[in-house]
Design brief:
Number of strands: 6
CATH topology: Alpha-Beta Plaits
Number of domains: 1
Distance between the termini: 37 Å
Number of helices: 3
Structural class: alpha+beta
CATH class: Alpha Beta
CATH architecture: 2-Layer Sandwich
Shape: globular
Radius of gyration: 15 Å
Largest sheet: 4 strands, antiparallel
Helix content: 25-40%
Order of helices and strands: HEHEHEEEE
Strand content: 35-45%
Strand order of the largest sheet: 1-2-6-3
Length: about 100
């Protein structure tokens, strides 16, 4: 079994993600590409001591980027949108919710 710190890479803090957290109690994280929904749910519940109702995952393809004549791609990632029980909150986002 993997550690919760290996499953969750970092929270995604964008305007859209903060609005989701504020209005619908949904929090967004970048997660390990090999992690499944059960591992993500357990990791969030263990790290933040909250109850997770559902987990939605999205595989994000890397975009093509160019610098001069050199082409490359940004890394591919996996995002997870975690819905929490009403009343539960994650403190990472508290300073951003205004």
């Amino acid at each position: 079994m993997r550690s919760p710190h290996d499953v969750l890479i970092r929270p995604l803090v964008t305007e859209k993600a903060v609005n989701l957290a504020q209005e619908q109690n949904k929090y967004t994280f970048y997660v390990d590409k090999r992690a499944n929904k059960i591992e993500i749910k357990k990791a969030v519940e263990d790290l933040f001591k909250v109850k997770v109702l559902s987990v939605n995952t999205i595989n994000v393809k890397g975009k093509k980027k160019r610098v001069g004549r050199y082409e490359g791609r940004t890394p591919e990632r996996k995002k997870a949108i975690v819905t929490l029980r009403p009343g539960d909150k994650i403190d990472i986002f508290e300073g951003l919710l205004s």
